[in-house]
């Protein structure tokens, strides 16, 4: 049985969003252990009508706030919800942890409690983006502000294994984010990584890709350092939000526009849903010795439920074993 530990005290709208999301996921068949203050979580469950059969509470009296210093405090905050949840994964009581709290704290706790997979130099956060031809995994999107060519090579191996296993793509094409398609373009890091990827027969390397190629879907995996990847991710989030705000403004600007907007509304709603960050809910932290998924701090109940479904599906499809094998090969 797949059990997911949810850091129920993490996130801007916790515990209301996390508890409601857990209840939604449980209704879809996901087993969830809510980790946090038992009294607070119990009261929230009662407010929603009681605890479903697939939801239980694991008491953790402490919780980590959203501050930059928290990542440095995880070793002494062993009663925090994220630490207790991570220990459940370590002991096999849960097969993955989902956290919507402080990203740095979650990553630091994963390294302290779970450690890295054998041979992994650095873990990476991978964000799955919707594209016209299917999902694309971009990594790293924030775990490593600086990286070496050997790190990006491992990101490519782990990302390819993730897309093969979790998304069923037999031979995912991999692109290296750069400022030009030519192998001579880009920083020293990009050029060294290009050489490594070109020599790896286990990777379907498509060469360098530029920023405009990220959402085209021609590559199913795109690798870069965490600083660049995070900027790309946040830029896309802002651009998509701005586009839909402008469409809404145009569609309500006049009576004629309102009539046309009414005809387009169903299609626009479907398109917005495809590009909504809540669709997957959380991104995997690849390279640690356990299932860890990190979601957006402002996640609502729908995003939390989707994060739990994403994590459950990845666990059941053997994500961890596939990533381990990709690095050992």
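^ structure tokens above, recovered residues below v
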């Amino acid at each position: 049985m797949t059990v997911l530990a949810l850091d129920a005290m993490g996130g801007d709208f916790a515990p209301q969003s996390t508890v409601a999301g857990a209840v939604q996921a449980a209704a879809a068949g996901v087993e969830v252990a809510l980790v946090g203050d038992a009294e607070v979580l119990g009261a929230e469950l009662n407010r929603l009508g009681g605890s479903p059969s697939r939801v239980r509470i694991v008491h953790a009296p402490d919780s980590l706030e959203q501050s930059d210093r928290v990542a440095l405090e995880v070793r002494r905050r062993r009663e925090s919800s994220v630490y207790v949840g991570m220990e459940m994964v370590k002991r096999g009581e849960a097969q993955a942890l989902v956290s919507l709290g402080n990203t740095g704290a979650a990553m630091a706790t994963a390294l302290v409690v779970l450690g890295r997979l054998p041979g992994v130099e650095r873990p990476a956060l991978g964000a799955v983006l919707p594209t016209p031809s299917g999902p694309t995994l971009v990594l790293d999107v924030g775990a490593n502000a600086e990286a070496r060519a050997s790190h990006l090579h491992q990101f490519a191996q782990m990302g390819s294994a993730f897309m093969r296993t979790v998304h069923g793509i037999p031979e995912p094409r991999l692109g290296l984010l750069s400022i030009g398609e030519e192998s001579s373009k880009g920083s020293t890091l990009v050029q060294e990584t290009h050489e490594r990827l070109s020599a790896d027969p286990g990777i379907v390397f498509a060469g360098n890709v530029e920023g405009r190629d990220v959402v085209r879907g021609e590559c199913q995996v795109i690798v870069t350092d965490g600083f660049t990847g995070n900027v790309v991710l946040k830029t896309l989030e802002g651009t998509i939000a701005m586009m839909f705000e402008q469409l809404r403004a145009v569609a309500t600007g006049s009576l004629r526009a309102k009539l046309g907007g009414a005809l387009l509304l169903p299609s626009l709603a479907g398109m917005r849903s495809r590009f909504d960050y809540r669709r997957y809910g959380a991104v995997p932290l690849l390279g640690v010795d356990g299932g860890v998924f990190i979601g957006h701090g402002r996640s609502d109940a729908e995003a939390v439920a989707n994060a739990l479904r994403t994590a459950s599906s990845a666990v059941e499809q053997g994500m961890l074993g596939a990533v381990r094998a990709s690095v050992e090969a």
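The chain has a mean pLDDT of 88.
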